[in-house]
Amino acid sequence: MITITEVLREKGLKVTPQRIAIYAMLSGTKSHPSAEEIYKALMPTNPTISLATVYKTLDSFKTTGLVQELSVGNGRSNYDANVLPHPHIVCTNCGKIFDFEIQGLSSLRNQVADQTDFIVEGEQLTFYGICPACRHN
Ligand SMILES: [Zn+2]
Ligand SMILES: [Zn+2]
Asked: What are the sequence ranges of the domains in the chain?
């Protein structure tokens, strides 16, 4: 088992209790929280944490490839510790963001490269709809 301390060190990041707490929270959830949501979740157990620290930490995590930042059109950034390319589906009613698997993502990327002559570096594939919980309400 590789520890969070080791993960941070490997990325050349200074290990602080707050960085450990933020990465632990993000790697333990599939909810794609925003900076504010991370801050609110950690405040009870990390009373000295500030929103500015959360933002700064997320920034360094993003730069070192520890997390990916999502823009799904809700006016803020959401964060995902799963940095492998994967699509998302967003509930237009409750705002929850879900992961799912899709076949042919790399073939899609090749098609884009072929048609545009771009070197494709990444993509954000986002679908929108009503989630099962909202649909059954
Ligand atoms: Zn919903
Ligand atoms: Zn995700």
From this structure: 1-82, 84-137
In contact, 51 and 36? CB cutoff 8 Å: yes
Task: State the distance from the centre of ligand 1 to the C-alpha of 132, rounded, in angstroms.
Answer: 7
User: Residues for the chain: how many in total?
Assistant: 137
* 79-119 per-position pLDDT tens digit: 999 999 899 999 999 999 999 998 988 899 999 999 999 99
Ligand index nearest the alpha carbon of residue 83: 2
Secondary structure element (H or E) that encloses residue 79, with its range: strand 78-80
Q: What is the CATH number of domain 84-137?
A: 3.30.1490.190
